[in-house]
Amino acid sequence: MTRAPRINALPAPHRERLMALSREVAFEPGRRLFDERQPADRFWVVRTGAVNLDSRVPGSPRPAVIEMLGHGELVGLSWMFPPYEWELGAEAMSPVRASEFDAAVVRELCAAEAAFGYALSQWVGQVLSHRLQTTRARLLDMYAPHGSGVF
Fold first, then answer.
1. What is the C-alpha to C-alpha distance for residues 100 and 43, in angstroms, rounded to an integer?
2. Helical axes 114-143 vs 12-19, angle rounded to 10°
3. What share of the chain is helix, strand, coil (3-state, %, to 5)?
4. pLDDT value of residue 26
5. Which residues contact 136 (CB under 8 A, 6 or more apart)?
6. Which of 24, 29, 93, 98 is deepest in the core (most CB within 10 A)?
7. Residue 45 pLDDT greater than 90, yes or no
8. Residue/partner pairs of 128-132 with CB below 8 Å, 24 or more apart
9. Residue 21 has what DSSP assignment?
10. Which is more confidently placed, 46 or 150?
11. Residue 63 phi, psi (nearest 5)
């Protein structure tokens, strides 16, 4: 399966505009960035390290890993869509350095600057499409009799 579009998929002027809104953060291995149904008020772009996206599975003590994200990848999509609650969870799997963004500030900029909003929406939409396909394949691998045939 192909990788999701990274931050460099955004045209340079829009990528620079977005990155100007970021602050550098770090997470230790095992740190939960967010859990399902929590408010989605920020998002990240991974600089170094790895973050697992996961989903709760009824009857299982640990969430099922959906995808591992690394350098240049977007962590979090739910910040862009009402009701702004996480649909998945995320956990640092190694020491992670990331650029963190305040979701409300980015949404305001999207509303104020149409070209920026369009470019960001296109990128997030591409990532969302990839995530849905990855989630589908992972769940088929876990629960279908013969898996998805993708992994």
1. 6
2. 90
3. 35, 25, 35
4. 98
5. 148
6. 98
7. yes
8. 128/77, 130/2, 130/3, 130/4, 130/5, 131/4, 131/53, 131/66, 131/67, 131/77
9. T
10. 46
11. -65, 150
CA-angle at 6, arms to 85 and 143, nearest 5°: 60
Q: Which residues of 45-55 are buried (b: 16+ CB within 10 A; e: fewer)?
A: bbbebbbbbbb
Joined together, the tokens standing for residue 7 give 């931050």
Q: How far is CA 48 from CA 71, 90, 102, in A?
A: 5, 15, 20
Extended strands (E) in the chain? 23-27, 32-34, 42-48, 51-55, 64-69, 74-75, 89-92, 96-102
pLDDT top residue among 150 and 2:
2
Chain Cα centroid distance, residue 115 = 22
- Residues of the chain with pLDDT > 90, as a percent, come to 70
> Is 128 exposed, middle or buried (CB count within 10 Å of its CB: 0-12, 13-18, 19+)?
middle
Among candidate residues 93, 92, 94, 116, the one with its CA nearest the CA of residue 106? 116
Structure tokens at 11: 């045209």
Structure tokens at 70: 């690394």
More confident: 61 or 34: 34
Query: What integer pLDDT is reported at residue 1 of this predicted model?
Result: 55
CA distance 84 to 1: 28
